[in-house]
Design goal:
about 25% helix, 6-stranded mixed sheet, 4-stranded antiparallel sheet, alpha/beta, about 210 residues
Length: about 210
């Protein structure tokens, strides 16, 4: 609870999260083939539309352990946090991690090592905005954003004056959820506008000699 409060995670989300002092046991219950060492973690569950657990993510509470461990139930492909509880008739925000999604209305988080451009059937042909981390020097994020734009998706591209790396940092810096949503909507682009703003935002290509 102290960890969540320090990150200013909305208290309304606390009931959606759990704590375990033996994440290995939790992981084994989700996927019996999983073998991990015993350690304490925050447990972030993933559900299908019938509220069945289809995966979990464990967040370490110390800096020595791997930050996140994601376990998928057998037969599951890609996990999206909060996919079971969104309104597809409204704008849907897609963040990189579950914690960031908890600050935004009607948001999901994509989980996966590659974070490749992929949308489940439930999100296709909907008003979806991808909100990747503000890391213009990250080759992985730059390539993913470039791929999203090429595939015709709408993306959030902040101005170069934004200092915070992600949604959580914006909240910790004192911005309200309303301010953040307004800022995201004002800086959401698609097509040619997305390409133009992407070109001024990214700093990971060879032209920057980095």
């Amino acid at each position: 609870r102290i960890y969540l409060e320090n990150r200013l995670i909305p208290e309304s989300k606390f009931d959606d999260l759990f704590y375990t002092d033996n994440f290995a046991k939790v992981a084994e219950q989700v996927n019996p083939q999983t073998v991990l060492q015993q350690e304490a973690r925050i447990v972030i569950p993933f559900y299908d539309d019938d509220k069945n657990v289809i995966g979990v993510q464990g967040r370490a509470l110390d800096s020595k352990s791997l930050r996140y461990i994601t376990i998928k139930a057998p037969g599951q492909d890609r996990l999206f946090y909060n996919l079971h509880d969104i309104n597809t008739s409204k704008r849907i925000y897609v963040t990189e991690g579950p914690f960031d999604s908890m600050f935004l209305p009607n948001a999901v988080a994509m989980v996966g090592a590659s974070k490749s451009v992929y949308l489940p059937d439930k999100l296709r042909l909907r008003d979806v905005v991808f909100c990747l981390d503000n890391e213009p020097r990250s080759v992985e994020i730059v390539n993913m954003l470039r791929d999203l734009i090429a595939k015709g998706q709408k993306v959030f591209i902040p101005s170069n004056s934004l200092k915070e790396k992600d949604i959580n940092e914006m909240v910790l810096a004192g911005k309200t959820v309303e301010n953040i949503v307004d800022y995201i909507d004002e800086h959401t682009y698609g097509g040619i506008l997305a390409q133009a703003n992407f070109a001024t935002w990214e700093k990971a290509t060879t032209r920057w000699k980095i």
